[in-house]
Specification:
methyltransferase, 240 residues, binds 6-chloroguanine, alpha/beta, 9 strands, Alpha/beta knot, tRNA processing
Amino acid sequence: MRIDVVTIFPEYLAPLELSLAGRAREKGLVDIRVHDLRGWTHDRHRTVDDTPYGGGAGMVMKPEPWGEAFDELLAEGPATVVFTTPSGRPFTQAVARDLATRERIVFACGRYEGIDQRVVDEVATRAEVCEVSLGDYVLNGGEVAALAITEAVVRLLPGFMGNAASLVEESHEDGLLEYPVFTKPASWRGHDVPPVLLSGDHAAIAAWRHDQAVRRTAQRRPDLVAASTLMDDVEIGPAE
Ligand code: 6GU
């Protein structure tokens, strides 16, 4: 997979060189390229923003540098274009799984009050486009979202994870939050590991974990429970 990121803060994307995405890079699973939007400006001040038509607070990203950026990047081949914006569709594990199937993703990181809408509309005439939000809160720009989405997608690439089971058992892969986990010692500061986990009874452990996942999801994320198909015959009650 190839990932291009266009931003006015390329140094914000430095963590992609490290850890997770860095490992995938070394394995040759992903080719990540970060681009400075100002490289597609032509004025002395390398201007990327201007005042909004219709008035109002803040600045809007000008269309011309973005247009030239996409001309150059899309000339290198087709891509799915992700605009990171708080007014986008919520990013979920399902979106991550979809993006993980793509050959190439171009992230366009918005700043200020956003990018001139005509950029999104024009790019949509020549590429598959999605506007994606990390969640219902406001960040200063889409760079953190591009980082988060890249990390969620890259770890799903075939060959990234050693153990396939570890992917399936995670929070959100089955529509539930993950059950609580414990390690040694069995007793710590007066808190004991639930005895079933020491029982060696694998069926009982699996049943306990599923029940815990359902309870935790019901308490913290009732919105997920409503959507879950795994709720058959499970009663919701207090966790402890
Ligand atoms: Cl993608 N961008 C910005 N600026 N704020 C956000 C966001 C994105 N997702 C949630 N808040």
